[in-house]
Amino acid sequence: MDPQxxxxxxxxxxxxxxxxxxxxxxxxxxxxxxxxxxxLNQKAQRTRRTINEHWDGQRALALHCSQDLDALLFLFACLxxxxxxxxxxxxxxxxxxxxxLTRVSPLMFWKEGGTQQGxxxxxxxxxxxxxxxxxxxxxxxxxxxxxLGSAGLxxxxxxxxxxxxWQDDDRWLxxxxxxxxxxxxxxxxxxxxxxxxxCEDLDARHSDFDRALGRLGVTLLSVVPTQLHSWxxxxxxPPASVRAILVGxxxxxxxxxxxxxxxxxxxxxxxxxxxxxxxxxxxxxxxDASTGRSLMGNVGRPLEGVEIEIRSQQQLYLRGPQxxxxxxxxxxxxxxxxxWFPTQDRARLESDGSLxxxxxxxxxxISGGENISPESVEAALHPLFGVExxxxxxxxxxxxxxxxxxxxxxxxxxxxxxxxQLVAEWHRVAEKRLPDYARPKAYYAVETLPLSExxxxxxxxxxxxxxxxxxxxxx
Length: 475
Fold this sequence. Notes:
- The protein is α/β, with parallel strands linked by helices.
- The protein has helices at 15-22, 37-43, 45-54, 69-81, 94-104, 150-163, 181-193, 209-216, 225-234, 254-262, 332-335, 374-381, 419-433, 459-467; strands at 26-30, 33-36, 61-64, 85-88, 108-111, 114-117, 130-135, 145-149, 171-173, 196-199, 220-223, 244-247, 267-273, 278-282, 301-302, 307-310, 315-319, 326-327, 341-349, 355-360, 365-367, 370-372, 387-397, 401-410, 442-445.
- 29% of the residues lie in helices and 26% in strands.
């Protein structure tokens, strides 16, 4: 089957169309090299031929998403040809990679500049018009595989643009892997708007981060709170070129939000998920100091086209043109409720129309018969003296069912402090801010908090880590 003959075309996602209308516009800055849309289009010719030779017109292909030119060209070629593409995270363990490849059974996959035969097996039945397959970055359960269509991806990019309109000189830093919806959306927004992606190996933990952003002319970034925290510790403010920083992936702590705003970081808190092709709600760059701006977990107003309902137990339901086509291996009626997607997030609509995310339904700790939201406990304890970061989880306990504990990363300046004095202070803070059942029963000192590929704290991995600890807790 001729891959070009499949279904309606989407010029917004076509590199050839971008080269025809914006050939001289800068498309990509990567590893010190700069490419216009016409130059990228020419470089993609070999990749197109590879796809034409291998694709059977039905099965998905797969891409190992290293942040390099060949991988991006493969992505662009599949988008243009409307070839279903499974995105594989470069940091996945081999067992996880094997599991995902077995479940999808792609025809072949691209890795480090070459093609490899896909696993032998019965190919999975894809939803009609599937363009991208992403494995969700759930914090504990086995990943589900999200199927996204071209129309939904374009709707997401357009809704983002309505909230944060493009400017002529915009360049968006690709600071997240594009096997994650947060990174993929950056690439697709820039392609659809014929703007520039900057794909350089920059680290917010390094002192030269600001200088590099200014030198590259970066105007827009998408980061997770851990990246923003590192950046704020080293910087008194971003370079003048930066006009907006989207902060998502997990809740932005109030103190970090205030610190960033105090240092004139133009941050916009955002909430999104793979199942909605990325953004659902985002603060507006023109928003005034409304009620929502001061609230923990606030993420601004829903983007254009996104419909929201909040039902029993504050569960957030979503629908809109950005919605996924469904999960692989799961019938639509098992996923959607009359067209609505039930998230596992708890939320509240504020009086100004903005959305606040209150925590996860599936991370609730049940201790002594009481339901406890770990995020609520973390928010109440933050900031905690001597602590750089903390995470609250429930550990299996024969008396309580689950025992609420906190893992803490100490500030370097407090490493030599008396653990007893620190713990006593933390208990005093908890007594003032939390009911007795919601206070951590123990504190564990850890070097780092485990993160998922998307930059979120991996609570499941942390629970496993604390369960296996030989050392006693600090308290």
